[in-house]
Specification:
- The structure holds two protein chains of two kinds.
- Chain A is mainly α.
- Chain A has one domain (5-150, 190-316).
- Chain A has twelve helices and two strands; from the N terminus they run αααααββααααααα.
- Chain A has helices at residues 5-28, 36-67, 74-90, 95-118, 126-148, 175-197, 199-209, 211-216, 221-247, 257-267, 272-297, 302-316; strands spanning 163-166, 171-174.
- In chain A, helix 3 (74-90) packs antiparallel against helix 4 (95-118).
- Chain B is an all-alpha fold.
- Chain B has 13 helices and four strands.
- Chain B has helices at residues 5-29, 33-57, 66-85, 102-124, 129-148, 175-197, 200-210, 212-217, 222-248, 258-271, 278-293, 301-314, 318-323, and strands at 88-90, 96-97, 159-160, 250-251.
- The radius of gyration of chain B is 20 Å and the shape is globular.
- The N and C termini of chain B lie close together (9 Å).
- Classes of the chains: A mainly alpha, B mainly alpha.
- At the A-B interface, helix 5, helix 10 and helix 12 of A face helix 5, helix 10 and helix 12 of B.
Chain lengths: 330, 331
């Protein structure tokens, strides 16, 4: 992949600002505490959260890359998979079996979506496909909650959830965040390799480029779509497990898709590395802003800071950091 | 395309007759709730029609239209808060008294919504397609969090409005006169939109939807045309917000939430994109469905989803297109 000079330029500036702004504020303002170990503690916490954002964003990118569909239902899929997992577990299945069963359900869902919805919409305008995914969203939200109930459920995988000290006891990091980030990171790397180097991965990219052209060179569109939606389902399940055991499995899980949107704007919709870097920048930026900037302006900045950041990037690069240049076809 | 003007007139005529006679029918049936329900339908129809202007004619799919509805509603809410409070709206740089006179508040709210639309549109329209969806959504989310953080105006809990705005000659607190005001607003907006769409301006915007580059090479500054179209839609959304605030006598950040924007898109889609009258049918369908189905299950969306997919698959001109016999292809 060729990286443009301006991307590196923007990236370095972002890093510099992320360090310089908290440092300056710490120097200038007396009521904001700034020390290097503390700064790194906040930054690392943010980066770990960022990996989880990347994971959700990745689900969007995969489907968009492979089918040109903005899958509005990604958040609903996260919720649905987590609900199914917890529900099956409550029915008495051991956790490992429940995970396998949920994977099977997500695969079935992918097949069903391809059969019922996508197949009839081949070569339609993207906006029509987008609308169809809104329908899928409503259905999944309602179906999952009808089936498994809408009260908050607890998901416990037995991952230790206590803060540990690292680097000579100077920096405090939550073990759960570390494990979650590790799993998410492995999944992201695995998927990136899969898309870049395998035959199926190449076929996926061909489909993304042009449905009809891909069909005409003999790429089986329907298989490809099932694969992508199944992979997106798996990504949704992993995200659902991680976020679900952090926040509890409930309706608000569907809203973490909102956390992924600034990541997508920032990183670009068509780029797996973009989703990763975007997630990291958003995660770290958000936490740093919350700790070092928010007290100055009265707090509560974490919710909308990500959007501000993404919009600021947008002014410089409408296609996102790693997105393909927007080319209007004539 | 099998298109019959007679059938179309019949559908529109029936719809209009039902809407005109509704308060009488409601009192005949002894169910005043119907008036409230249909006022809501009219208001959402107004918001959906304004969204259809940009989606159906301009090809700009905005997932942030609820922002303008929210802005309109918040203008009404904040002003009535100050009227109730007896405090000044602004004390610096000049003193400004709040008001609850509809003739003053409503145009102001619509104007502010339109201005915000210019602001948001001028950034968002630098992009198109998917990016545009995302960016309008991002703006709407930011405004949502802004509304949540307005501690002075109730924050998360919103503002209760003590009484509806005052309008000379008409008593808005009476539900059936309020209903007719909503109907008038909707009809006027529909008429204006109809004129707009078939004017030279409308043709340029529709041309830009089909092929922006060609319109540009013909010498039309499409960006400006689209921006104006976007702000007109924003104004329509703002008016809907004004009416919602007056109907519920309550304003909360929930109005700006993205699920709300999603619902508006669904209304446009159900009714028929690019049909102007369609979204009215779409709004009625969605709200009536919610009303009827939520009696059976809390998760009534489970039926809405498949219904929406069916519409996307089989009735691409939506309910209106299907009723008026103009279904089938996208034109």
């Amino acid at each position: 992949m060729r990286i443009e000079k301006s991307v590196i330029f923007i990236f370095i500036w972002t890093l510099l600002l992320m360090v310089a702004i908290p440092w300056t504020i710490g120097k200038v303002s007396s009521n904001i505490f700034f020390e290097w170990p503390f700064f790194f503690e906040v930054a690392i916490g943010g980066l770990l959260a960022g990996v989880m954002y990347s994971l959700v964003a990745l689900g969007f990118v995969l489907i968009f890359k492979a089918s040109g569909v903005f899958n509005f239902a990604q958040g609903a899929m996260v919720l649905f998979s987590a609900l199914t997992l917890v529900g099956l577990n409550e029915l008495g299945l051991p956790m490992w079996l429940a995970i396998i069963a949920t994977l099977a359900v997500m695969l079935l869902l992918a097949v069903a979506i391809e059969r019922v919805v996508l197949r009839s919409l081949v070569n339609q305008e993207h906006i029509i496909l987008f609308m169809a995914t809104i329908g899928i969203t409503y259905f999944l939200d309602g179906f999952g909650q009808t089936l498994w109930g809408s009260e908050v459920k607890i998901l416990d995988l037995g991952i230790p959830n206590n803060p540990g000290l690292y680097f000579d006891g100077k920096i405090l990091i939550n073990d759960f965040d570390l494990v979650a980030a590790l799993i998410a990171g492995l999944l992201v790397i695995g998927l990136a390799l899969f898309f870049q180097y395998t035959r199926i991965g190449r076929a996926l990219r061909a489909v993304a480029d042009d449905h009809q052209a891909a069909l005409s060179v003999g790429i089986p569109l329907k298989h490809i779509w099932v694969i992508v939606w199944a992979v997106a389902g798996i990504v949704a399940l992993v995200a659902g497990i991680m976020w679900g055991s952090k926040l509890g499995v409930q309706f608000s899980l569907a809203l973490i898709a909102l956390k992924a949107l600034p990541v997508l704007i920032l990183g670009g919709f068509t780029s797996v590395p973009g989703a990763i870097i975007g997630g990291l920048i958003i995660g770290a930026g958000e936490k740093l802003a919350e700790v070092f900037v928010a007290p100055l302006i009265g707090g509560g900045i974490e919710d909308w800071f990500a959007y501000m950041l993404a919009l600021a990037f947008l002014v410089f690069r409408p296609q996102g950091l790693f997105g393909e240049k927007i080319i209007e076809r004539v | 395309m099998s298109f019959s003007p007679f059938r179309r007139r019949l559908v529109l005529g029936t719809g209009l007759t039902i809407l005109l006679l509704l308060p009488a029918m409601a009192s005949f049936a002894g169910d005043p709730y119907l008036i409230t329900l249909f006022s809501r339908i009219l208001i959402y129809a107004l918001a959906a029609v304004s969204l259809d202007l940009i989606i159906g004619y301009g090809g700009m799919v905005s997932l942030g239209h609820a922002a303008f509805v929210g802005i309109g509603a918040y203008v009404v809410g904040i002003l009535s808060f100050h009227v109730q409070d007896g405090s000044l709206l602004l004390s610096w740089p000049f003193e400004l008294q709040a008001s609850d006179a509809a003739l003053l508040v409503w145009p102001a709210a619509v104007l502010i919504s339109a201005l915000m639309a210019v602001l948001i549109g001028s950034v968002s329209l630098r992009t198109s397609g998917l990016q545009f969806i995302m960016i309008t959504l991002a703006f709407a989310q930011m405004l949502f969090y802004l509304a949540v953080s307005l501690e002075a105006y109730g924050g998360d809990d919103g503002i209760s409005i003590w009484s509806r705005n005052r309008l000379p000659l008409v008593d808005l607190s009476d539900d059936s006169s309020f209903y007719y005001i909503c109907l008038v607003c909707l009809l006027v907006f529909l008429y204006l939109s109809h004129r707009l769409v078939f004017s030279r301006f409308g043709r340029v915007v529709r041309g830009a939807k089909q092929n922006e580059l060609r319109m540009q090479s013909l010498g039309f500054p499409t960006y400006r045309y689209k921006l104006v179209c976007f702000s007109i839609a924003g104004a329509g959304g703002g008016l809907a917000g004004v009416l919602i605030a007056n109907q519920n006598e309550f304003v909360s950040p929930g109005l700006l939430h993205w699920t709300h924007s999603g619902e508006l898109i669904v209304m446009v889609l159900l009714g028929g994109m690019g049909t102007l009258f369609g979204p009215v049918f779409g709004a009625a369908a969605l709200l009536l469905m919610e009303e009827l189905l939520s009696a059976y299950t809390e998760h009534w969306m489970v039926f809405l989803g498949p219904f929406l997919i069916l519409v996307v698959l089989f009735a691409k001109r939506g309910i209106y297109g299907w009723l008026s016999g103009a279904g089938g292809n996208h034109a």
